Amino acid sequence: MIRVSIVGATGYTGVELVRLLATHPEVELAAVTSRGERGKPVADIFPSLRGVIDLDYSDPEDAALADSDVVFFATPNGTAMHQAPALLEAGAKVIDLSADYRLRDPAQWEHWYGQQHASPGYLDEAVYGLPEMNRKLIGQTRLVANPGCYPTVVQLGFMPLLENDLVATDSLIADVKSGVSGAGRKLTPATQFCAAAESFSAYAAAGHRHLPEIKHGLSAMTGDTVGLVFVPHLLPIIRGIHATLYARLKDPGTDLHELYARRYAREQFVDVLPQGAHPDTASVKGSNSCRIAVFQPQGGATAVVLAVEDNLVKGAAGQAIQNMNILFGLPEATGLTQIALWP
Amino acid sequence: MIRVSIVGATGYTGVELVRLLATHPEVELAAVTSRGERGKPVADIFPSLRGVIDLDYSDPEDAALADSDVVFFATPNGTAMHQAPALLEAGAKVIDLSADYRLRDPAQWEHWYGQQHASPGYLDEAVYGLPEMNRKLIGQTRLVANPGCYPTVVQLGFMPLLENDLVATDSLIADVKSGVSGAGRKLTPATQFCAAAESFSAYAAAGHRHLPEIKHGLSAMTGDTVGLVFVPHLLPIIRGIHATLYARLKDPGTDLHELYARRYAREQFVDVLPQGAHPDTASVKGSNSCRIAVFQPQGGATAVVLAVEDNLVKGAAGQAIQNMNILFGLPEATGLTQIALWP
Amino acid sequence: MIRVSIVGATGYTGVELVRLLATHPEVELAAVTSRGERGKPVADIFPSLRGVIDLDYSDPEDAALADSDVVFFATPNGTAMHQAPALLEAGAKVIDLSADYRLRDPAQWEHWYGQQHASPGYLDEAVYGLPEMNRKLIGQTRLVANPGCYPTVVQLGFMPLLENDLVATDSLIADVKSGVSGAGRKLTPATQFCAAAESFSAYAAAGHRHLPEIKHGLSAMTGDTVGLVFVPHLLPIIRGIHATLYARLKDPGTDLHELYARRYAREQFVDVLPQGAHPDTASVKGSNSCRIAVFQPQGGATAVVLAVEDNLVKGAAGQAIQNMNILFGLPEATGLTQIALWP
Amino acid sequence: MIRVSIVGATGYTGVELVRLLATHPEVELAAVTSRGERGKPVADIFPSLRGVIDLDYSDPEDAALADSDVVFFATPNGTAMHQAPALLEAGAKVIDLSADYRLRDPAQWEHWYGQQHASPGYLDEAVYGLPEMNRKLIGQTRLVANPGCYPTVVQLGFMPLLENDLVATDSLIADVKSGVSGAGRKLTPATQFCAAAESFSAYAAAGHRHLPEIKHGLSAMTGDTVGLVFVPHLLPIIRGIHATLYARLKDPGTDLHELYARRYAREQFVDVLPQGAHPDTASVKGSNSCRIAVFQPQGGATAVVLAVEDNLVKGAAGQAIQNMNILFGLPEATGLTQIALWP
Known about the structure:
- 4 copies of one chain form a homotetramer.
- Chain A is α/β, with parallel strands linked by helices.
- Helices cover 28% and strands 20% of the residues of chain A.
- In chain A, the strands form 2 sheets. Chain A has a 7-stranded parallel β-sheet with strand order 3-2-1-4-5-7-6, sandwiched between helices. In chain A, strands 9-10-8-11-14-13-12 form a 7-stranded mixed β-sheet.
- In chain A, a hairpin with a 6-residue loop joins strand 13 and strand 14 (302-309).
- In chain A, helix 6 packs parallel to helix 8.
- Chain A is globular, with a radius of gyration of 19 Å.
- The model of chain A has no long low-confidence stretch (mean pLDDT 97).
- Chains in contact: A-B, A-C, A-D, B-C, B-D, C-D.
């Protein structure tokens, strides 16, 4: 059994880690921490977990995190970069679901996240945990930077086109729509029911923190820098991200559906739909799947990729566990066979 | 392995049976039938099941249903009563999720369901599948009448009060609110998004088909007929039922919370909340739990019971599998450990 | 033209007052105040008001409120009781949408609202602004205590039964469901999208602040104290309240529909539906209507009343303007002819 | 007073016409027709209109439509093309909210709408009713082809860029999201609550009927054919369309915000937001506004336009009334001053 701890298990991502790990056959949940709720039973705060988990929240200082085989950070940006190094040096592995180790360049990180990086020396060592791209490296590291929800779905959507040099890389467009849980559990006016329900809008059209992370990943696929316009939107649903991606094809004659089907044929968590089908976010609710379709409207020069995921699963906690499975040599789908809840 | 078939697996309840049975460790899914979709892969109609199930829909006439150990009917009312007898005589067990075998009196059934009963001779044999009430009988039958979604939560909510003769039985009130999936997958104006979203209303206030079923069950708890006013409402959510129950206490001095906690202490799928907590439907979404709280406002003469369930799980498919587990001598929670999806 | 000011116009109720008053033909909006947003254009905070209103928020201290003919308080409980007396003495009329002047007994107010009342001397003078009950008194006062959203719909629902002494008054039940805007614009965990959407629960089942206000009103109809169980619930919709009311009939032979139709025949804002119809909250969204239906299930001893309103209109801002119209001798529907927005 | 009739007033668009026309000061509603509901009071089918409208539905054959000054067609595609010619010849004006007269080329119409055009001789005469583009022509015609909901918002969004030749016209992208009411009131699986709520997907990515209409309008702005990729999506809201538009700038140095502000300065129903603000659909719910913002992410070569409208108002019934006002020489905003319902 793998001894697992979760730091910051009061956010949506942390609770989702608990939900998924509670039935993972190779995991023993050692500690879940929260400064604000320490001493309280987890199931008192989250009634959906009544009867599932018996643990109380412990203070991150008191928890014997270093005794864990792996520690998940489900904390706000700027926390893991302080605490991860000591854990790593004590022998634990770390999977960070925040943005702390996702960029290589500390200056760039500091620009987008507005604070000085506390452990820049670990940035080079961190492996970006997108298994469909970095499976081998993930298996060899001790520090995984788990991708953001937007970056996961955008990278999986563009990957076959970019790896095969099929599109102009200076004018990629990602029009992406996220459910409200993507904004986290912090109280904000925009995430109040009366503001978010029965409405829809873009936000951060001028520039969103996930932009450099996505561009970094896309560039790695092409070997060159890419030009990307990324516009995130807030959807009035709880879970789910839908990316609509646009790219100019170099050769309109390529069979795009076949390309995608082949690229992902052996990926358990990427599902290419039959030609002509459109993925909907409900079909992945609660599951670790990313479902993808590709179109070429009117046979023209633009490829349109549609990709969906559950932002809390494949976009966060599920992918983190997928990475853990790789880290510990388990079959990649262990504990991740939850079927989407439909309707 | 238990060979299982599902008749009518294109409605919400049938799809939910597939979702739950697909990961049941003791079940082999032999056939799923649908006249309208025969020949098509189940996963083509329900993309949430892609990668989960490989079966095509078969015609109910072609499927070798009688070779199954158990056949679930997830059909509209009036179908199982025609097909179940032959299957039973051929040796299969039958769990009927429709209303066909829920009432003892064929005349009453015909009054509420507007058609003649096709196999009234089986009504006496059928066992009403509410495990918390009829566990022993369920284990001995071959024909289970799986309770309706409303009746399940209302009966579990009133049970401790009625079994202990604590309330006036002539003036019970059940104000119950159901998510839209409770209305089934048939196209109707009331279940269109633009009619159901951002709205709320009661329906069938003059009399709903579940009334005789509920009264029958409540009467069985008291040994006498009961007076019940039952008002169903349509909630703008997909899954979930919330019952708010009112009863006049004979003795306001009883410790109601203790009563409920004791009654359900050994029930795996009924969860009595800590005193003062209010259950919400989200805490049972996708799980087989019924969560209950009881209040006595201002210490007065009225007991208020709050009870929630997922209408498709504990209110339908989950309870049907719970009954199957009892029928086949399996631990009751086998294959039913799904954790509620929150948020 | 009536010079109108609004104190606290950043909450849902205040913004709704602006929406309704902006097209009122006899009103000139003099000032809207907000400590937090002073100096900012109202339309910058609420884009729905762009092009509608040109005012900036002013500080309540700076605004010449006493120059207004009438001042609406759309403030949290505990504010109007401090500021209203000076305005009244300066000659302005006051319509308070908070709870400050709704109860006669300061001790009772202090019990439920947890603070000392700052101007108890004005409680006797305040008129409870339910026009269907107190129209004459409203026309003669200078201080209107505008009813709460729950109390409005519950009182209108029970009124014909109680005024005519038709039901047992010791066991009234009000099972009431409110949209999320009823909880106000303050940030709370329960009103976050991810907590409120796709869920439903009761709250404050042990006792809600509106209980004494409702009981006070119902008692006034009967001339005696009443016994009431009031259970509020949170609905996943923005606007709308649905009350389901239960009362034991003294004589099951009364024609309830006729009773309701007659009682409200001359009320412009209470609409009794055709027999057998069920009101839905969508049918009053944005309008000042309360729609009502009454049932007597199975011809039994229990009357079931269904009543809906838009909590921000008839339950708050609309009713406040209805009261203003009465105060100033205008036709009661002036400026209140908005048609419900459906779908 | 203008005598107005509505053909097909049982769909969302027809009901919305009734809502808006009922308070229009210069309109008398002469007849509303429906084959299916003839003889029934309109307010019986749509309770939101109780107390607002006294008319019964009449059969389109019986109604003296030709006596009307103007007839609105709120019918499915393929109806107006049969009935409009006789009305026009009898002297009535016609405003068609369906697609029948929106394209000039009958062959193109027949390709996209799958039937032969019944009155192609009127296509040349019909004026495309986008007032911001064709105000003068609208004032001179007797037959208005009211734009589709998608085409309205996409054309208003691109207009300043195209009119001024600022972008490459071969690679325009319109990623557009519509609320469910845009799909009409017909019963379909995709518009059921359980399918549409808590989900999001694209549809018709290979080609949507509004594509030729939009391209036609955009081409008229540039004087040349344009290349457009148009991907519609279904939003889980009732009302509202959000367009996110992408275009390659010829000169990244243009002040886009100033361009848009200037272009729409005198348009009453197009609102350019302050720089940096993002429009949300809730801010136009129930109103005739289109709100627009324009961004140039990272100062790059791509312009991003965000535009919202209520698909039933500015995208249908409101714009139709705006056109009627122009036709009859009334101030364009007559009867169209409804303020958005927020929250």
